[in-house]
Amino acid sequence: MFQGETAITVDDKGRLTIPTSYRDLVVGACANRLVIAYNPFEIGCLWIFPHDEWEKVRDQVNALPSVKAVHRALQMKLVGAAAMVEPDGAARVLLPASQRAAAGIEKKAVLLGMGNKFELWSEQAHLAKIRQTIGEDDISDDMTELRL
Questions:
Q1: The predicted structure's pLDDT at residue 79
Q2: How many whole angstroms separate alpha carbon 70 and alpha carbon 100?
Q3: Are 12 and 51 in contact (CB under 8 A)?
Q4: How far is residue 11's CA from residue 97's CA, in Å, rounded to a whole number?
Q5: Other beta carbons less than 10 A from residue 6's beta carbon
Q6: Binned average pLDDT, 10 residues per bin, the chain of 148 residues
Q7: Helices (H) and strands (E) in the chain — how many of each?
Q8: Alpha-carbon torsion (61, 98, 102, 14), positive or negative
Q9: Residue 140 forms beta bridges with which residues?
Q10: Where are the domains of the chain?
Q11: Regarding beta strands 118-122 and 45-50, do their DSSP bridges make them parallel or antiparallel, or are they unpaired?
Q12: Rounded Cα–Cα distance for residues 60 and 68 (Å)
């Protein structure tokens, strides 16, 4: 569904404009309803889900037994801090200030289409992640089957 990398600017009010190439996909995938949540695995990144996709993730995460601290942490970051947003007439969405601050997202950011969701990276975190290489010791068994 979503793929590609787009450099974006967050305006002074904390809004990002959905790139033109994604607008029809967003309308079709979720009737313009999006959910913003913390990425629990990467620093400097927020996840933006189409609402229908978000409901699947939310239900899986909420089904985890909350007696484990790691489950509660995942539930807090994905469900507890989730923000429902709808693009305005100019295709802008307001990023919650607390999420922007926690991810270090300021004026410049990078939006990545990652199939079923977007990742919104701070410019610095994205650059650091892109500059990392995957070493031989990092290759999983699943990756050995890829023909790149």
A1: 96
A2: 23
A3: no
A4: 12
A5: 15
A6: 94 95 85 94 96 96 97 96 94 96 97 96 96 92 90
A7: 6, 8
A8: positive
A9: none
A10: 2-133
A11: antiparallel
A12: 15
Cβ atoms of residues 55 and 37 within 8 Å: no
- 2-9 and 92-94 strand pairing: unpaired
Amino acid at the residue 35: V
Segment (H or E) for 111? strand 108-115
Looking at residue 1, its pLDDT comes to 81
Q: Check: CB of residue 48 under 8 Å from CB of residue 35.
A: yes
Helix ranges restricted to H, 1-148 = 20-30, 51-62, 69-75, 97-103, 123-131, 141-144
Tokens of 42: 């990467």
Q: What are phi and psi of 73, to 5 degrees?
A: -65, -45
Question: What would the pLDDT profile of 37-72 be if each residue is shown by its tens digit?
Answer: 999 999 999 999 999 999 999 999 999 999 999 999
Looking at domain 2-133, what is its CATH homologous superfamily?
Transcriptional regulator MraZ domain (3.40.1550.20)
Please tell me the pTM assigned to this model: 0.92
